[in-house]
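In pairs, describe these two lines:
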Amino acid sequence: MKKFNSIKKNNDFQKVYRTGKSYANRLLIMYVMRAEREDTRIGISVSKKVGNSVVRHHVTRLVRESYRLNKDKVKTGLDIVVVARAAAKDSDFKKIESAYMHLCGLHNILENRSENID
């Protein structure tokens, strides 16, 4: 399994919460902050309000997979923190991925690559 570039330290989470810009939808809240590095890191937070540890870990894996499959569409050099809301526990992958991409669009962090297929 490939190493996952994530935010792990509480100080890094707090910095993104304080200085980052946030948007939310029914399932997720996303904080985005421009970072000093060239790669993008993601932090995922799922509180006990969402469910027990099995449910929380499941939601975390769904968000992580949404990021992994779409990271080539997202601009680089960002710190992203995704907070799951309680409604996320009843959602499948497609709904989580759709909510994730919706928030990426609101933050305007999607790459504008126009690929011509001839």
